[in-house]
C-alpha cells in the first residue's frame, strides 16, 4: 500500500503500523487530508477543517517518545461540529 492510500486503513491497521514504525502519524494524516480534499465537495462532511493544524498535531504526536504514547496514539477521529472544541471558533460554524 502506498502512502497515498493510507486512508483506506482501519483504525486497528493504522494503529498497528504506527506502533511498528511502518508509517508516521504525519503520513497517515496527509493521506486522510488528501482523501478529504478529493471527496468533500461531493460529501460535504466537514464544516471546519484546518489541515495545517492537523499536520502540526501529527508531527507533535510523532515526536512523543514511545513510552509516553497512549493506546490510541495517532488514530484519527472526527469531532461532530456541534461539540465545542478548544481552539476551534465554533461561532464560524453556526
From TrEMBL:
<protein>
    <recommendedName>
        <fullName>Amidase domain-containing protein</fullName>
    </recommendedName>
</protein>
<dbReference type="InterPro" id="IPR023631">
    <property type="entry name" value="Amidase_dom"/>
</dbReference>
<dbReference type="Pfam" id="PF01425">
    <property type="entry name" value="Amidase"/>
</dbReference>
<dbReference type="InterPro" id="IPR000120">
    <property type="entry name" value="Amidase"/>
</dbReference>
<dbReference type="InterPro" id="IPR036928">
    <property type="entry name" value="AS_sf"/>
</dbReference>
<dbReference type="GO" id="GO:0003824">
    <property type="term" value="F:catalytic activity"/>
</dbReference>
<feature type="domain" description="Amidase">
    <location>
        <begin position="29"/>
        <end position="89"/>
    </location>
</feature>
Amino acid at each position: 500500500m502506498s502512502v497515498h492510500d493510507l486512508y483506506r486503513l482501519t483504525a486497528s491497521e493504522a494503529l498497528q503500523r504506527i506502533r511498528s514504525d511502518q508509517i508516521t502519524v504525519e503520513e497517515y494524516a496527509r493521506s486522510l487530508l488528501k482523501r478529504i480534499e478529493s471527496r468533500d465537495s461531493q460529501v460535504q462532511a466537514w464544516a471546519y477543517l484546518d489541515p495545517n493544524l492537523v499536520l502540526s498535531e501529527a508531527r507533535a504526536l510523532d515526536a512523543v517518545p514511545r513510552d509516553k504514547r497512549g493506546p490510541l496514539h495517532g488514530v484519527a477521529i472526527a469531532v461532530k461540529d456541534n461539540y465545542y472544541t478548544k481552539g476551534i471558533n465554533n461561532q464560524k460554524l453556526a
